[in-house]
Structure formats: structure tokens, C-alpha cells
Amino acid sequence: MVYGQQFRTMYKFEKLEVYQLASQYNDMIYDLVEKLPKSEEHNLRAQIVGAATSVVLNIAEGSTGQSDVEQRRFLGMAIRSPLETLACQQLIERRRYVNKEEPSKDYEFSRVLYAKLQAMRRSLQKGRNEK
Is the pTM of this model over 0.70? Predict the structure, then answer.
């Protein structure tokens, strides 16, 4: 048995659809960067991986033990990162590092993730306004 496995609880962020989507998106971005040339290791590769990872981490950090206002702040930070990954994907396409059709699935996934993050942030604002 793995240490602590019997005591494993799910944290609030692990139950969130946006967290699960962001984690899948992060995996997709890692798969994408494997196709980049070594010369991009400290440029596009580092930038896009950092942005995709930032989405996951901001959702997690903002969800646990935070007020709605604080969670909205972290979601605001998380919302910026899919836009950054989209810009990186466009640069990757422009440089022809991957087949033009290849990133389209990642690109569409980032749009969905962005929309879901915005919806979650709006719902927290709406709940605040109703109090």
C-alpha cells in the first residue's frame, strides 16, 4: 500500500470540471511540445508548458479554503493562461514546427477550457451579487 493511500481524500479542486479539463489540457500541451525542436527548449516549450501548468495550479490554489472573491481572483489568473497557450500554439504553427492540422484539437480544447473558466468565474460573481 502506498503511504497515506487509506487516508486519501479528494480535495475540492479535484472535483471541479475545470480542474479536470485543465489537467487534460496540460497533458495535451506536454504531448505537443515533444514535437518541438531542441532549439525551442527555453523559448516556446518553456512558455507554453508554464502557461498550461499555471491554469491547473491556479484553479487548485484558488479553490481550497478561499472566499468566492479570492477564488475569483485565482480564476482570473487561470483564465489568462489558456490565451497565452493559444498564442504559443499560433507561433508553433507559424514556425511550421508541427503539421498545421495537428494543434487544432489542442486549440479547440483551450477555447472550451477558457469558456468554462469564464463561466465558473461569472457564477462566483453572480452568487456574490445574490447575497
Answer: yes
